[in-house]
């Protein structure tokens, strides 16, 4: 009898508490709301509404089909941004670094150009295309010296800002050309997705795991016949104190039409120009790490695999050359027509295996 009464009491207690624990209805984003409750016509407005919820529970934003031309920032922790699929929900904008400094708190045009900025902890984004649709190809095709040519042509699709952590992208397409994905926060995972670009299109100092995805190199607008490399997949700037940089696992490195055989580097070392007490020059401690594990590589990958990258010397010129041999670059068990590699003298042996990389990551647990 005592057991039955206890069970009844607990049942009544749970029932009584249910309304307080009920999940809020998702916020909606639609091309037209037509008096729908909790509905907004822009993703940015929905995100602002989500920020009014001061609890620590997850807030879901259900984004309907359509193209949304806007430039939102996710600032609230525990956000789910869920679209209807990469072919149905599209977030796009066309900011370019040359004119985007005013969007960034540090007046940095590259970061400011992002179509979507994530500046929060525990964020899940799925079922959508996120694109920077600045016309890179037309600009790239202009001859040097043409007054119409934009010199700072970085146009980011997604910036994982310095305050971002535990960000998961699943079944998304991230589209751009130069600098598509900027990882400058803590940890992020991308899976079952497409990332497309051409110059340094996955770059930064964050901890990033890309798995079971397609990494697609896009063509250039300018002729690059005289250059050793036309494009670069990664440009990590991982701090030497950080054990994991960019890890790409069981993914397919593909190319679109117009990308030549042997023209693409897996990566090059980015040493960002940084202000120090004794001057402004490339950060010597940014010993970038990029590791490819069990990936299929198309024939566009260059036999050398990796490339050098210029940086800012102490005299302010772009004459400091950083070599892949002095970086933390590795590939393990590559296959496909682009997997054949010449030995260029990379001696770093500290590449993490996938188990180690995953231990450095996270598991999201949305309520």
Describe what this molecule looks like in 3D.
The protein has helices spanning 2-21, 43-51, 109-112, 136-141, 354-359, and strands at 27-29, 39-40, 59-63, 66-69, 73-74, 79-82, 89-93, 116-118, 121-132, 158-160, 165-175, 181-183, 187-191, 194-197, 199-204, 207-211, 214-217, 231-236, 246-249, 252-255, 264-267, 273-276, 279-282, 289-293, 296-297, 309-311, 320-322, 328-332. It has a 17-stranded parallel beta sheet that branches. Strands 5-8-10-12-15-18-21 form a seven-stranded parallel beta sheet, with no helix packed on it. Strands 22-23 form a two-stranded antiparallel ribbon. The chain has 367 residues and is mainly β. It contains five helices and 28 strands.
Layout of helices and strands:
Elements: H1 2-21, E1 27-29, E2 39-40, H2 43-51, E3 59-63, E4 66-69, E5 73-74, E6 79-82, E7 89-93, H3 109-112, E8 116-118, E9 121-132, H4 136-141, E10 158-160, E11 165-175, E12 181-183, E13 187-191, E14 194-197, E15 199-204, E16 207-211, E17 214-217, E18 231-236, E19 246-249, E20 252-255, E21 264-267, E22 273-276, E23 279-282, E24 289-293, E25 296-297, E26 309-311, E27 320-322, E28 328-332, H5 354-359
Parallel strand pairs: 1-2, 1-3, 3-6, 4-7, 5-8, 6-9, 7-9, 8-10, 9-11, 10-12, 11-13, 11-14, 12-15, 13-16, 14-17, 15-18, 16-19, 17-20, 18-21, 19-24, 20-25, 24-28
Antiparallel strand pairs: 22-23, 26-27
Brief rundown of the structure:
The chain is mainly beta and 367 residues long. The protein is 12% helix and 34% strand. The protein has five helices and 28 strands.
């Amino acid at each position: 009898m005592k057991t039955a009464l206890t069970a009844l009491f607990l049942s009544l207690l749970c029932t009584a508490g249910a309304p307080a624990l009920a999940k809020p209805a998702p916020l909606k984003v639609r091309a037209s709301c037509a008096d729908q409750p909790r509905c907004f016509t822009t993703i940015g407005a929905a995100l602002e509404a989500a920020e009014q919820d001061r609890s620590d529970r997850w807030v879901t934003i259900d984004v309907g089909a359509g193209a949304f031309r806007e430039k939102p920032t996710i600032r609230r922790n525990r956000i789910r941004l869920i679209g209807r699929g990469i072919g149905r929900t599209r977030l796009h904008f066309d900011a370019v670094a040359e004119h985007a400094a005013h969007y960034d708190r540090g007046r940095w045009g590259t970061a400011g150009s992002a179509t979507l900025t994530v500046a929060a902890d525990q964020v899940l984004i799925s079922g959508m295309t996120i694109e920077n649709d600045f016309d890179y190809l037309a600009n790239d095709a202009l001859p040097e010296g043409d007054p119409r040519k934009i010199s700072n042509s970085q146009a980011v699709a997604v910036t994982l800002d310095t305050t971002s952590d535990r960000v998961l992208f699943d079944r998304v397409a991230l589209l751009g050309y130069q600098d598509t994905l900027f990882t400058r926060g803590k940890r992020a995972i991308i899976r079952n997705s497409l990332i497309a670009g051409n110059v340094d299109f996955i770059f930064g100092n964050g901890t990033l795991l890309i798995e079971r995805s397609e990494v697609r190199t896009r063509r250039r607008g300018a002729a690059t016949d005289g250059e050793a490399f036309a494009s670069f997949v990664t440009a990590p700037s991982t701090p030497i104190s950080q054990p994991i940089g960019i890890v790409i696992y069981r993914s397919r490195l593909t190319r679109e039409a117009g990308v030549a055989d042997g023209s693409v580097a897996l990566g090059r070392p980015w040493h960002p120009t940084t202000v120090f007490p004794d001057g402004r020059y490339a950060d010597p401690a940014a010993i970038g790490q990029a590791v490819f594990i069990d990936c299929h590589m198309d024939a566009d990958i260059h036999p050398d695999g990796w490339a050098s990258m210029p940086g800012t010397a102490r005299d302010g010129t772009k004459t400091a050359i950083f070599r892949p041999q002095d970086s933390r670059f590795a590939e393990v068990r590559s296959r496909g027509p682009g997997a054949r590699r010449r030995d260029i003298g990379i001696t770093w042996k500290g590449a993490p295996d996938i188990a180690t990389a995953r231990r450095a990551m996270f598991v999201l647990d949305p309520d």
